[in-house]
Design brief:
- Helix content is 25%, strand content 27%.
- The strands form five sheets. Strands 1, 4, 7, 8, 10, 13, 14 and 15 form an eight-stranded mixed sheet that branches. It has a two-stranded antiparallel sheet with strand order 2-3. It has a two-stranded antiparallel sheet with strand order 5-6.
- The radius of gyration is 20 Å and the shape is globular.
């Protein structure tokens, strides 16, 4: 499926308060996995499937993200600098160049998720459909299959339903307090949550009122009542980065040289 003209919106403006060890200094999408911001990893996932046009909704410490991409080429390069003659030469012969086009849009410091999406509607007015995701989770989802599913269902919205990763081991205890069984971080296949990888048609903007609109509340509930929301089930890898524990887990997976979300 050709997705070269399809855009992806990434919400990157939240405070990330549960990861305050990192987000006191930078926005959560810029917290690094293997030396690269999680935002970069998310964009690489989309890019693998041909999606190279990104609309990034900025808010908290948005200038940090702007600076990262404004200096992206320089930071990927070796630099030859002649201070006397003010000559600057970039050596980038062996560095991979991303085929990305970005709109970095300030959507407000305290704007809610639906409000952020509404504020970038002008960038999507001619699009049959588009992707949207949050800037804090990685997955091995097949983006092309998600798009095919969305178009086949002919609904306004498709969300990705995933199994939540277990944070703690599960105990089974008998009446005499003896532990009957212990399962380290089991995965429950009968629980599904919103994994944050969406497909929307342009009609979604009719459900977004103002800056205070929380996408996951009234808009999605209204779509449910109108039978306009469908779920694409993804039962493989999905991992958010809400806590320092989850950040460390993602870094450990990256260091294993076989991170599940890395397809590029």
């Amino acid at each position: 499926m050709d997705l070269s003209k399809t855009k992806a919106v990434i919400l990157a403006g939240g405070y990330g308060s549960r990861l305050s060890e990192e987000t006191d200094l930078k926005p959560k999408p810029m917290v690094e996995i293997g030396g690269k911001p999680i935002l970069w990893h998310i964009m690489k996932i989309y890019s693998f499937y041909g999606v190279n046009q990104f609309i990034i909704c900025l808010g908290y410490k948005g200038n940090y993200i702007k600076d990262y991409f404004l200096n992206y080429f320089m930071n990927q390069s070796n630099i030859n600098l002649d201070l006397k003659n003010n000559d600057l030469v970039y050596e980038n012969k062996n560095k991979q160049k991303e085929n990305w086009k970005l709109n970095l849009v300030d959507t407000g410091l305290d704007t809610m998720t639906g409000g952020r999406l509404k504020k970038v509607s002008s960038y999507l007015k001619d699009d049959k459909f588009f992707f949207m995701t949050y800037g804090d989770a990685v997955t091995d989802i097949n983006i092309a299959d998600l798009a095919k599913f969305h178009l086949a269902k002919k609904k306004i919205a498709t969300l990705t339903a995933v199994n939540p990763p277990e944070r703690f081991g599960r105990l089974s205890i008998m009446k005499n307090s003896v532990v009957k069984s212990f399962v380290e971080k089991p995965k429950s296949n009968d629980i599904l949550i919103n994994g944050g990888f969406f497909c929307f048609s342009n009609q979604i903007f009719k459900y977004l009122k103002n800056d205070e609109t929380v996408l996951e509340q009234q808009p999605l509930k209204s779509l449910v009542s109108k039978k306009q929301l469908v779920a694409f089930k993804h039962n493989k890898f999905w991992q958010p980065m809400d806590t320092i524990f989850e950040k460390n887990r993602l870094n450990a997976l990256w260091s294993s040289k076989n991170p599940p979300w890395k397809k590029w």
